[in-house]
Write a structure and sequence with these properties.
221 residues, mainly alpha, 0% strand, R domain-containing protein
């Protein structure tokens, strides 16, 4: 029984594969070229839809870029704060060791540095460089924020202009539809007037012809 069931299942799988193969052949080979083109044209998105999709993709990419830049700014700020803390701790440790050396008579004022300890000038130079780097980081952050704000304003302005254009197009479409309906109504009224005039002329002609013929045999009787 089990072998029979397995053979039946294999036969069913074979028939299913054959049916799928036939369907694929009909789908990709047997359809005429004009029908394939028609199907592609019917399923292809319109130009407006493509423009909307591209604008949505651009907005999403800009938002992702802004979020990445903001995250990078936060990381840079954290790194800068960490460097400042490390520098402060090094300065504290250096100051304590300098005091200890001065107490021991090692860090005496040096004539080559105008009476200052020899390592104080290097420390001041490092502090100046760190201040310059921090100022550059702050300027870069401010510049990035300005650029992001300008990009956001530009995107909002473009969106407002696009919506205004869409509203104008919709208004123009409604105006044309109203004009078309009014023209149809005017043509219908004109046709009714012409038909009414034709009926009046026909009725008048019939009355005139009746007077010219004289009373009919039915009227005499």
């Amino acid at each position: 029984m089990r072998a029979t069931r397995q053979r039946r299942e294999r036969r069913g799988d074979k028939e299913r594969r054959k049916r799928d193969r036939v369907q694929r052949r009909e789908k990709y080979i047997c359809i005429p070229a004009d029908r394939q083109l028609q199907r592609r044209e019917s399923t292809a998105p319109s130009t407006e839809e493509m423009n909307k999709r591209s604008s949505v993709r651009e907005e999403k990419a800009a938002e992702e870029r802004e979020s990445r830049e903001m995250q990078e700014e936060r990381r840079e700020s954290r790194r800068g704060n960490q460097r400042e803390r490390e520098e402060e701790s090094r300065q504290r440790e250096g100051g304590e060791s300098q005091k200890e050396r001065e107490l021991e008579g090692i860090g005496r004022p040096d004539r080559r540095t105008n009476g200052e300890p020899r390592n104080s000038r290097r420390r001041d130079l490092l502090a100046t460089k760190e201040k310059e780097r921090e100022s550059k980081r702050q300027n870069d952050r401010a510049r990035r924020r300005r650029e992001q704000k300008a990009t956001k304003n530009k995107r909002e302005r473009e969106r407002a202009e696009r919506e205004a254009r869409d509203r104008e197009v919709e208004k123009e479409t409604r105006r044309r539809q109203k004009k078309k309906i009014a023209e149809e109504e005017e043509r219908e009224k004109s046709r009714e007037r012409e038909e009414k005039k034709a009926r009046g002329r026909k009725e008048k002609r019939r009355r005139v012809e009746g007077r010219e013929r004289g009373p009919s045999e039915y009227d005499v009787r």
